[in-house]
Write a structure and sequence with these properties.
192 residues, mainly alpha, 3-stranded antiparallel beta sheet, 3 strands, globular
Amino acid sequence: MRREVFERARVAEFWHGAVSDDYRLTHAMRAAGLEIRFAPRAMVASEGDCTAGEFLSWAVRQMIITRAYSPGLWRIGLVAHVIYCGAMALAAASIAAGHIWAAVLLALVTLPGMWRGAMRVRVARRLFPDRAAWLDRHRGAYFWLTLPTTWIWLYVFLASALTRRIEWRGNVYELVGPAETRVIAHGVSVVQ
């Protein structure tokens, strides 16, 4: 972004009191009548390890931020995910009850997500050719872990519905709204 566009869109003003720079940047650009375009080549690979608890904490924090900054998007995601998980559970229960035809429903619900996972690997290989060996080694995870991941994201959505507080780098914040963040505590460790 050029400096003149940054100033014309009043991005610094939109960032004041915000915890999410990307959502507020989006709000500033829209308010200025400008658009943001996705540039796949601008993506960077993130490296590092985390525990399951660290991942869940991060995912819930990101979803709480989405709920505070883009509540309409969050609601659509929540409803769609509840319907998706409900259809999966209904199909599994029907199969368990002896209704073998429900296997077709389960396949119709799950296979597109598994296909998208496989496509992510193909796209990532093109964007990050230097990581092709790692992607090839873990290719199956993007396909087979679609099922448990679906339920993890349901947990993330539901957990994000219960609070507007996040912990980040030892500080606890309450996301009052897109332009207002309250600092609740400094230098603490709180489990969400």
